[in-house]
Amino acid sequence: MHVAQIWQHPVKSMVGRTVGTAEVVPTGLVGDRTWAVRDQVRGGIRGAKQLGGLMRLAAVPVDGPGGHVAITLPDGTTVTTVDPGASAAVSAAIDHEVTLEPLAPPEDLDHYRRGEMYHDDLMDDLRATFGREPDEPLPDLSQFPPEVLEFESPPGTYHDVHPLLLLSTSALAALAEALPDSDVDVRRFRPSLVVDTDGAPGHPERDWVGRSLRVGEVELDVVGGCPRCVMVTRAVGTDVPADRRILRHVVSELGQDLGVYATVARPGRIATGDPVTLGG
């Protein structure tokens, strides 16, 4: 196995970019999810679970990983986070008032606290967030770190649960085969790393849970599957249409999970093509 793609998403829920190399630190990839939007209507840092239009925007760094970013809007215009009008432009593009905000220190807990729900009933809010039909199960929320119940993301980060999300080429191929009329674009699934699994059938990353992975000089601990939410149904950029069939398949046929989460046991540098070795 080897690293096929490394993805950086400079702004939470916007389309990111692939890079040839990246530094891996305990909080994930350097330059990944260093900006996000705050909902000025209900409060809280938010992503495309609630503000789906964010996935039609794309972001790239303009002065190195972790610095300011340039955001391309659906009409093709670009704004940068140094532009005082950037938040207004993003708000207009997604038809919801937001402000762009960089990562705050982990001690600034108020920055990361959840805002108001989008529905009056908690179960309705969860079903909307995870995109579940009335007869479909919700994920087991007890598998998530307890801080994500109080905070939109673990303080000091803008990732949802864990620092890294791994997805195999086999999983993408299996999904495309199962859903021939759907656009199984990797950008829907927002991985940190895509691992080429040498044509193994199905979803081999499921067998990585509870084990370690050596990725170049980096060591990762695979901690669990990634329960998928409404984001995988959203339109992406200007060329990938919305499609609810993908989530229906993931829920009914894949036990709700696609890809696996990992934490960082040993930081370091990784590169496309690096070998990936499964440990104990």
From TrEMBL:
<dbReference type="Pfam" id="PF03476">
    <property type="entry name" value="MOSC_N"/>
</dbReference>
<dbReference type="GO" id="GO:0030170">
    <property type="term" value="F:pyridoxal phosphate binding"/>
</dbReference>
<protein>
    <submittedName>
        <fullName>MOSC domain-containing protein</fullName>
    </submittedName>
</protein>
<dbReference type="InterPro" id="IPR005303">
    <property type="entry name" value="MOCOS_middle"/>
</dbReference>
<dbReference type="InterPro" id="IPR011037">
    <property type="entry name" value="Pyrv_Knase-like_insert_dom_sf"/>
</dbReference>
<dbReference type="Pfam" id="PF03473">
    <property type="entry name" value="MOSC"/>
</dbReference>
<dbReference type="GO" id="GO:0003824">
    <property type="term" value="F:catalytic activity"/>
</dbReference>
<feature type="domain" description="MOSC">
    <location>
        <begin position="138"/>
        <end position="279"/>
    </location>
</feature>
<dbReference type="InterPro" id="IPR005302">
    <property type="entry name" value="MoCF_Sase_C"/>
</dbReference>
<dbReference type="GO" id="GO:0030151">
    <property type="term" value="F:molybdenum ion binding"/>
</dbReference>
